[in-house]
Each structure stands twice: as structure tokens, then as C-alpha cells.
Prior knowledge:
By secondary structure, the protein is an alpha+beta fold. The chain has two domains: 67 residues; 157 residues, no CATH class. The protein has nine helices and six strands, in the order H-H-E-E-E-H-H-E-H-E-H-H-E-H-H. The chain has a six-stranded mixed sheet. The longest helix has 29 residues. It is globular. The two termini are 15 Å apart.
Amino acid sequence: xxxxxxxxxxxxxxxxxxxxxxxxxxxxxxxxxxxxxxxxxxxxxxxxxxxxxxxxxxxxxxxxxxxxxxxxxxxxxxxxxxxxxxxxxxxxxxxxxxxxxxxxxxxxxxxxxxxxxxxxxxxxxxxxxxxxxxxxxxxxxxxxxxxxxxxxxxxxxxxxxxxxxxxxxxxxxxxxxxxxxxxxxxxxxxxxxxxxxxxxxxxxxxxxxxxxxxxxxxxxxxxxxx
Length: 226
């Protein structure tokens, strides 16, 4: 499976983003007109913020990837540049889910595929950094898909999600709603209270590398037999 955005030519990528931007402007202007006619100006403000939060990753992620600030380790697993001894990891964004998830997959298949891509990305991250004498690097991520048990099995521990992260998640609720619904294959409402921040040291992940590799292969086999 490939990332359908990045296999496009530069011109096709640009035209895709232009189409997304144009569609967003049409939607925003429509709600501004409704806001003006009804004199309920909060409608325009609300939908302006909503649309921006939804389309943002379609522009931010390719730009950050191009600048080297974001790195793909698998189709649905990214990391930021290490900063202050911390590597922040991210599951795929709405942008990635739109261009990666096969629409023919059912909800169970999608969940298995997403977890497999997380494991593949984590494995690649370990292998890319284990020989860099960076054992003390902290790897930290926030997820509403990976549960406590799975996280602990691959070497992570649950830590408190900071208030800024919670604020960002709240602002991006509708973005997460669309992403979560794509993951489940139907309209599904994520519970932000289930979102957790996981953390570990790179050295601990290196120790769990073979386990992660075996678990990844298990998910690959499951997907191949579906």
C-alpha cells in the first residue's frame, strides 16, 4: 500500500491542495453568508475555525515533511525532530488517513492495519536511532487508538497528558472525529478522555525490539489472510 498523495507528481500535489483550499473557501464563504443573513455572527466564526482545523494537516504535514521537521517511519507513523532530548511521535493525521486507508477495508481491518503501521513505524524509528548513542532519548506520543495494555507490552508507560495537549485536542475535535470515523469505517465519536500520553526511553524500546518485530509480523500475517 502506498501514500496516494506522495506518489503524485509535484504538479498533481499542488493542484490537489488548490482544490482543497478552494473547497474550504467556498464552505467558509457560505457560512459567512448564512451568518450575515441571520445576524448570528458566531456561525461564521465557528465554521471558519472548524474548516481551518480540518484542512490544516493537508498543508502542514507535506510542508513539515519537506522541511525535514517531520519524518515518516511508516505510512501512518511520524516523528518530529528530537528536541531537548525528546522525540515526539504521532500517528497518521487526517491527511494521511484520507490518502492511505483503503476504502474497501472494514472497520476491523482498518484498526489492524493502523496498529500494524504504528508497530512498523516504531520498529523503523528504533532501527534508525539505536546506533546513534542516543539511549537516553525519550520517546513520547499521544494516542486515542493504542490502549494501556498494548502500550505497556511494547515498552511504554502512561504519563499525564499536559493541559496544552488537551487544549489542542479539544480545538481539533472535529478533525479527530473525521480521522476516527475513517479508522472505524463508520461515523464514530472519539472520547477525548480516552486519549493518553505514552512515554519511554529509546534504550527500553531497543530492548523490546524483537517483541515489537514479532508483533508486527503477526499483524502483517493477519492482514494478509483477511
